[in-house]
Amino acid sequence: MQIISSAPHNDVLALLVQISVLLLTARLFGEIANRIGQPAVIGEILAGVFWGPSIMGKFFPILSGLVIPANHIQGYLLETVSMIGAVFLLLITGFETDLSFIKRNGKLAIIVSLGGIILPFVSGFFLGQYLPDTILVNPDKRLEFSLFIATAMSISAIPVIAKVLIDMKLLKRNIGQIVIAAGMVDDALGWTLLSVVLSLLSEGSVSFASTSLAILKVLLFIALSAVVGYQIVKHSLNLVQDKLKDENRILTLVIVLTFIWGALSQALKLEAIFGAFAIGIIFSRMQRLPHHVVEKIKSFALGVFAPIFFAVAGLKMNLLEVFDKQYIPIALIVIFVACFGKIVGVYINARLFAKQDHWTALSFGAALNARGGMEIIIATIGLKVGILSVEMFSIIVFMAIVTSLMAPIILRFSLSHIKIDNAELKRLDQEKLALASPIKNIHRVLLPIKFNKSLTQAFLNNQSIKFTLLEKIIRKNRLSITLLSIYD
Question: Between residues 177 and 43, which one has the greater pLDDT?
């Protein structure tokens, strides 16, 4: 029998110090970033950069040694805590992926999103093919490296985009809603692409057979999530909500299912974050999921685990290498290709196929060009699976920071040329009136109904007029209605 042993005393001590310092600094730097009009994620990454080899590691190595892991055990412990942050980030992204919202804005959102996927993927692939061997972990794996870079270029960052739109009071505007819907489609397609690429990497080579197997595994996972996962979440949520009494029962259920689905995706060699993303989308469709549970998860995820994740990512980054004369040209090329692929790809699709005007199309491209935290997650995965060198990891993280800083600047310029029309003004006024309604945020209703034998049989046979009306109310208003039976 194998005995479970704990990590050595000094390594546990190091982990506690690392988490304390990184979390405190990340929150402080995040607050500073917010105060100067930038997303907190930028400050959280820079907190890690501050403690890493770029600054403290160079000028005060003794202090930096308190935060940078000194051995493999310390590295594994800190990386595990960091990985939990990535899992929660993708869970929250899933929560915010509203399929009905995408459906309402479907055609335009898909057109815009495809522009932000196809050209970045193609240009990213060619970039990977021509980068020098010195920046690759293994030049013999250039095809796999190119596919990974292509996928990384395709991702956008919904949290950063949403933060920029909120700060600019654009989230409720037509342009804001289309950008968010396009970003959701972009993320869903991008993460699917990444899961295929990672599956290929796990197979060891790229061939027709390995590509087919990778796509099959991803499709199997999507099917399991959409059919089996949906039913598991639905019935377990009903069971826990109706039968258990503990006030944190639903929170526990969400976390347990997140890790179960993460384990399933990890077993398929697709990385645990895909399972978290999938289960988040499923939970977002559950009307019985209380809003306060989502807020609790967001509180400890965004307040604790996410800052640690981004700070650890910054800790791995070495800006001295990025700004080395050998790597500066590469970093500039990567940033140019990233911006060119997203902005031009989205702009062309919005102009040619969606028939949008010049400034609206430019605004779409500028918003979706923000990479932020999602790019950091991808870069971290690439470093973990051995497809990215430390130098390339640092360059991609740097690109994510630059594109996130660019987004609000270009958006402010382009949006100043877009005038709001009367139809949109009318819609915004109606939404303001709706928000004032006391029943706007009601999602669960307890409805007492007096039964007799004939009415009971009619309900069982789905023939009652009352049953039909209830069904229509539920579908139209997306309500969860619990019937309280009162018998004669």
Answer: 43
